[in-house]
Amino acid sequence: MTFTLHVDGPRWRTHTAQVRDSVREAITSDQVSGDLVAVVKGNGYGFGNARLVQEAHRLGLTRIAVGTIFEAAELAHLTDADILVLTPFDARDLSAATVWSQVADGPHHNRVIRTVASHAAWQALAAGPGPVRVVLEALTSMGRFGMSADELVTLLTAPETSDVLISGRIQLEGLALHLPLSQPPINHRAIPGARWHDAQVAPVPPAGLSARGTEAWRWGLGWQALLADLSERLDSSPDVHGQKALTALTCAAALWISHLEDSELRSLRASLPDIELFPRIGTRLWLGDRGAVVARGTVLAVNPVAKGTTSGYRQRRAPGNGAILVVGGGTAHGVALSAPSALSSMRQRAVAAGTGVLEAAGRSLSPFIVAGAQRWFVEPPHMQVSLIHVPAGIALPEVGDEVTVEMRMTTAHFDAVLGLD
């Protein structure tokens, strides 16, 4: 094992339980509750998706959210939980559609919930035999996937929608709201307008509600109004199938929400007492206590080097006397892979500019920490190891020692995760 994640298991599990309990307290009322939905996707936040599925079960969670249908297909046999697929279903995505078909014909089809973010996707499902479980996605200030308020009104007030629900081809289970990390403007383009509410003037939001919370509240009000209208039309259906659809529609009185703090959830619960809340939480749940997890690379070789000596694929010259450490951890592990930074201050921009100048000169600071400081790469990391220059006068680790690595957990792939068995 050369690149490992060390977890303080008791501390980490205490943290995840505290997040669960805090969220449950925030969203529970005398009328309805909901529950935390554990997000399990990508690289599993460094832990691996299969392990996080087990941890969600340990926490007693009955719903998880995955990024893609490919992940759902891989994980479904590991859990009895309902699985929400966050990437919207679209029959025009042919590769995904093939896997969707396989899942629909498999033993776990009744536990998989599709996100639908367009009329085309809804119509494709409505034309099928069903039943399929669906969450509709609103186009929030995130501006990524979803339908506008007017599009949702058009969809749910269409006569054929009642027919689809009565037939049971689609089981509607709520509205998905993917909110931004930063607080949005209150008057952003996705806020529902006059068609959404009975009144021509939108209600005044509760005092103290954040911009994100206000956006969720307004979508929630509109969603309740739409469901009330839909229930009236289903209630007028003369046959038993209409009554079954009406009963099933109670599951639709739910908001599946991301990126709200507990205080925002608490305010939302108070302002929408009759609707279930399902907060989708990943980073805060799994990585909220960073002190409980440490990434480490194993020292595989220690090679003394004199100033000017060349080494590595690119034969870079050593900037001074010292040693080159060969350390486990390379591009296959996610080392030195990064996304564009969200720079918000002049200091951050200045640091980024300076870093860019150094990289242009062939120097790049590694995430490996030796003797309390990050050390320079000799050259870009290899696939599974990195070459690190340590200046003379610094106490050197020995082969077999481990050095700490500071890196993004959402891009990390470890040879082993220790402390959770």
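Second entry:
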Amino acid sequence: MTTEKWFAYRGFQQLLMISNELNRAQNALENEDIAHAICAWERAFELTDLTVEDKKNERLLTELLRFREMLGETFITHDKEMNRSLMKELIRLDPEAYRLMC
């Protein structure tokens, strides 16, 4: 994903795409496929880092960095419940993303 392409997405779209990677990780965990979960988390890290760099998300910087920290913990522990919780909390960061998912 190029920076230019990622920055063209609206903030809520970026959050939904990160959440989609967490959903892929969750499905992999449910199927006890750690390798695929790790790939999905790595992609979530990549997209989160791009989102942090995007100036339009500056108001969410603290929350995004905290999310990234918790994603790291989930990556290390492979905790299904934490992964599920991260998906929910990420969506709650933006009213439009929340509206679309709930």
